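Troubleshooting: if your tokenizer reports a length mismatch, compare against these two reference records.
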Amino acid sequence: MNETPHLLSSSPTLWDLVVRRATLTPDRPLFLQGERTLTFGGLRERAERVAAGLYGMGVRPGTVVAWQLPTRIETALLSFALARVGAVQTPLIPFCRDREVGFALREAKAEFFAVPGVWRGFDHTSMARRLGAEGVFEAYGELPDGDPSALPPPPADGTAVRWIYWTSGTTSDPKGVLHTDRSLIAGGSCLAHALRPTADDIGSIAFPYAHIGGPDYTVMLMLYGFPAVLFEQFAMPEALGEYTARGVTIAGGSTAFYSMFLAEQRARPGEPVVPTLRLLAGGGAPKPPELYHEVVREMGVQLTHGYGMTEVPMITMGSPDDGAELLATTEGRPPEGMEIRIVDGEVRLRGPAVCRGYLDREQTAAAFDADGFLRTGDLGHLTDTGHLVLTGRLKDVIIRKGENISAREIEELLQRHPGVAEAAVVGLPDAERGELVCAVVEQPTGAAALTLDAVTAHLRAEGLSVHKLPERLEVVDALPRGQSLRKVLKYKLRERYSGTER
């Protein structure tokens, strides 16, 4: 298991991976956090004891257990203990509050709910009681404990639905996404195959472990037997000390993370912010080509970006040997078994990493076409080399006077303006045009105030067609973002600037 095994020919479970890796390298570290280390063997031993404790509480195969916990060693232990029992688990991002949490608990019919108590000044236990949640227990430090001999055999079928994840940011109402161990293993295998880590690497998980990227990344650690540093609270520049002390070689998470590392590098010209760092990698949001070139040029590290979503944790991933042009302009290639079909410009997917659908059967029926391909809502095309290029989202196509305009095209050109730190372009209702083009931008610290005239002049100089130029500019201190991978929430911008904000 120092190379990605052919796991998808059968139906292994996540617990199978735990057992295999614990047998191969029991004493190698898996998770590093502060002064604590959890080895691969320690994960197996401790997770079985926690599983026995959960079993003693009444958790059985198929029991729905929700958990809303920060990125901690205990969180991973609880999650793998639930996998050992064969429970159905529904992770919730720690920053979610009453509306989202209450919705998820009701829809999933959760029978138990693990919370961190008071965390970052918010009382999760009180919220759980307020929502009438069942089986509430705190799992921040103390975890259930029991004798593993009381446990039934571990689950044997990796194709059973045992995960309910929640979409986080592309719509105002979340959807419960149904996953299996097999689909999560397929996603992690894709990531591992593309990045080609070694046992000598040290990774990092700076995003919420409750995000679908949590098991995605952990599968890669299992397959290649290397550790990751966990960050319960991620902030720059405070996190740099831990990256340096642990000798992290692979970091990232999403486009926002690349930008944060780059900003720190610019504050320390000529001095590597993390001397051991060799690779930034991630996905979850569009990556402007210019950002790729800036990271490689100024930080002296490679950047590989991928494409995934809650419904399909890993679809494509750039590989370090793809070459600069492909890494800058594409989302990488799909792994073996992932079928990509382009229908009327829309990317559609079929393969082992694709979810089983949604809790809502009507949403499932609408999401898959007659051939079983998932409709992603993303627009793109495949290159001659099999790399995927994303050009926007169906909802990001602005129809102005009958002409289709790609929001992403304008955003990438705006990113080249020195007065723009990040940009989001949306269409707003307009009686005359149908939709007008609105650019919403964050500016770098100390930048001169932008005007609409300056923005349109820049876009004209970049060669943008006149009919695509923004008619409206909004400058904000911070774009609204999801709490997991910091993806910009465009629906909030549409609500805010069309006057329908709730």
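Reference record two:
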Amino acid sequence: MRWRKDIAYTGWGRALTASGRVARPVTEQEIDTIAPAFGNRRSYGDAPLNDGGAVLDMTAQDRILAFDRKTGLITVEAGVTIGALARILPPQGWLPPVMPGTGIATVGGAVAMDVHGKNHHNTGSFCQHVTALTLLQNGKRRKITPDRDKRLWAATCGGLGQTGIITQVTIQLKRCPGEVMVVTERRVEDWAEHIAHLDASDATYCVGWIDATATGPKLGRGILEEAEIGSGLAPARPKRRSVPLDAPSWALSGPVVRAFNSVYYHRVPATGRTVVRAFEDFFFPLDKIHDWNRLYGKRGFHQFQCVVPLDRADTLRAMLAEIAESGLASPLAVLKRMGDGRAGYLSFPMPGYTLAVDFPNRESARDLIARLENQAIAARGRIYLAKDGLAKGPSVKAMYPEHPEWVAQVMKADPDGKLATDMVRRLDLRRL
């Protein structure tokens, strides 16, 4: 296995960096060193980083190993992307059951974060549809299942890659009756209406875009999207554009963001509309802008995402009011209702409402995020580790009461800490 030395790399937020040795094994058999593994590094913070140490880039291991077209059971290598499956499988009548907001995420990463999608309220998290995993632990190959290895399974799903190097994943796909998305869009005037629509929706896929700059009676306004899979001619795949340079600091200044959000809000007619979209355009809207994270400039950005219980929606409203008053939010703000599906000790989902907002990497934004995290704790909620780069260990441990069970399994699987990452060290997750 060839190693490249002194390679600099980041997570998607680009606010935190690392450097060290990087190897990109093409096959599982090439892996001769136990080290933290990453895919396309779509986690925003330091989850995929190991500054000063070695890391394994798993993106070359991207083969489909087995696929039963009758049952929809598929086994893939960890480096296969969600987007690749979303392109390949629909003509065969199947679709990944859960897809995050980017198709560039790898299947291995989807397991390590137990990702969720726009259908979590009725479908649950990604790992609830995984039937088997293959791990490399201390150089030995081990296949595990949720029935036979319950505790190790729960520590692996959403477990930040700390129980072994994920090399193969078997997924139970969902039936796909067509190759397009039929999407109904409607304007939502304020917070109360947004929550009411989320509660009333019986659509398979449902997500709300929030204008995080709106204040006063417009607080919480946005666009609600409800969607179903349909049949018919798919629109042309959206052309990919790129951001060739790091944007200047004024590109996402308060006035610019407010103006963009107003235009974006009014793009949907007051009476609403129903449109047909390609799968990629609906599930992965930002993937058509290559390196969109460069819009935040050289300093990068942080995303805050939390979930609070259903009876604490007022806390989320208060958070949004503070965000709007700060003038720090970007155009990227999302509100969803979640169900009770989660597979692991550190899996993010819980029944409730989740809010995700991007902020440029500034001291004032970091201070705001710290306050928002404290509010999430007080509301018995939690933050999403796939997005975090700032939290403190005691806060995260308080949010995840099953953390001690996770520690017990991790210390059995990797007692020497060979798989520890910058996030694990920052949060001191391997200790109670």
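Descriptive notes for reference record two:
- Residues 180-390 form a domain with the Alpha-Beta Plaits fold (CATH 3.30.70.2520).
- Residues 58 and 342 are 25 Å apart (CA to CA).
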